[in-house]
Amino acid sequence: MKTIVALLCSGMAVIAASPAFAQGTDAAMPATAAAAFSGAHIEATFGWDHLANKSIKDIDPTAHVTGTADGVTFGGALGYDVALTDKVTLGGELGLYGASTKWNNTANLVAGTFNTATVKPGRDIFAGAKLGYALSTQTQIFGKAGYTNTHFGIYGTDGSAVLYNGVNASGFRLGAGVEQKLTKATYAKLAYDYSHYGSGQFNYGGSSPDASTFDLHNDRHQLLASVGVRF
Q1: Range of 150's domain?
Q2: Are 82 and 38 spatial neighbours (Cβ–Cβ below 8 Å)?
Q3: What total number of domains does the chain contain?
Q4: pTM score > 0.85 for this model?
């Protein structure tokens, strides 16, 4: 976690200090700093995805299978922001993302019992609110909070047979970052997002044993870079 915060702070400092990013003031200046960050926007996002997984086998509540995995997240979002004061904006955002992240269980498999073998997050939907504070007409810091729903692909095995099931897990997402104007219409962002997913139960069907019912819990940490256009 300290590494994530350090990387985010370093990125913010680089963007804010860069003379190239400090340019971009057009002839028509916004009436207030917040006005420069209001209106509709669309953006593309790419970044680092860290999944912390815990699977609980219902047949034995004490048998916890845990693991972590790293990958790449990618996608985009659209939203709309309004200026509440000279410096404060409030908006809504809707995003759709994917990821390359996949956790393979290699250390916790128990011979002769049914185990979670692989967990892979799929499409990720986010809907939430964003509160911004403009430091100038070029730079704003922001925080966001909202709902996330991710489809997880789950593979289970008893050492020979491998079964697959998918489950949609819902949770909340919190994030914070900095947005920097590149031109009047374009911007770049650096952000850190934390997501926590509630219980996502899944059960392998067919002739799989009773122990093939699990209760999945996940946390995600993401360090994100975005570029976008504000209309």
Answers
A1: 2-24+32-230
A2: yes
A3: 1
A4: no
- Concatenated DSSP letters of the chain: -HHHHHHHHHHHHHHHH-HHHH----SS--SSTGGGG-EEEEEEEEEEEEEEEEEEETTSTT-EEEEEEEEEEEEEEEEEEEESSSSEEEEEEEEEEEE---EE--SS--TTS-EEEEEEEEEEEEEEEEEEEESSSSEEEEEEEEEEEEEEEEEEESSS-EEEEEEEEEEEEEEEEEEEESSSSEEEEEEEEEEEEEEEEEE--TT--GGGEEEEEEEEEEEEEEEEEE-
Q: What is the pLDDT of residues 86-103, one digit of tens each?
A: 999 999 999 999 999 998
Domain CATH for 196: 2.40.160.20
Among 158, 202, 161, residue whose Cα is nearest residue 56? 202
- Report pLDDT digits (tens) over 174-222: 999 999 999 999 999 999 999 998 766 666 655 555 545 667 778 999 9
Residue owning tokens 């499409």? 123
Name the residue among 211, 46, 200, 33 with its Cα closest to residue 113.
211
